[in-house]
Design goal:
By secondary structure, the protein is α+β, with helices and mostly antiparallel strands. The protein contains four helices and five strands; from the N terminus they run E-H-H-E-E-H-H-E-E. The chain has helices spanning about 15-25, 35-55, 95, 115-120, and strands spanning about 1-10, 65-70, 80-85, 125-130, 135-140. It has a five-stranded antiparallel sheet, with helices on one face. It is globular and about 40 Å long.
């Protein structure tokens, strides 16, 4: 198993850095462009949620988001991404994962984060405790590309 860990300050401008790092980390796999885009999109949503909701605008030295990425090579290759914050936590996970629900209706894209993560990844697990933070674990199994025969 190969792994990578990144810790960023909980700032929205750091989401792009995470996307590039994750893309670079998994690009050596036998991965389709669609799968790569799915992972990048889901990671962006998870990190954005941590920044916007986890810390709710409170920035101090503890306001960081940790991203752990794993490549698990087995019968099927799988990518596992963990996004961890030490923020306010999610009081009601079931409510928070309801499509279009948001605790911040003033944000233009609010209410779709978990729905997007669930649609682009194979599995999402949310572990959260009030005032202790949230850990989102996302798994994506990679489809094996079929090699093309070239006839001469």
């Amino acid at each position: 198993m190969n792994s990578m860990t990144i810790e960023i300050k909980a700032l929205l401008e750091n989401v792009a850095t995470v996307r590039v790092a994750i893309s670079s980390f998994i690009s050596n796999l036998d991965i389709t462009i669609d799968e790569l885009m799915d992972v990048k999109t889901a990671v962006s949503e998870a990190v954005t949620n941590s920044v916007e909701h986890g810390y709710d605008g409170i920035l101090d030295d503890e306001s960081t988001v940790m991203i752990n990425a794993y490549i698990i090579a087995d019968e099927e290759d799988m990518i596992r991404i963990e996004v961890i914050d030490k923020g306010v936590g999610i009081e009601d996970i079931e409510l928070a994962t309801t499509p279009t629900y948001t605790s911040k209706p003033e944000l233009e894209h609010a209410g779709m984060g978990f729905t997007i993560m669930e649609s682009f990844m194979d599995e999402i697990v949310i572990d959260s405790s009030k005032n202790e933070g949230t850990k989102i674990t996302m798994n994506k199994k990679l489809k094996k590309k079929k090699s093309r025969e070239i006839s001469v």
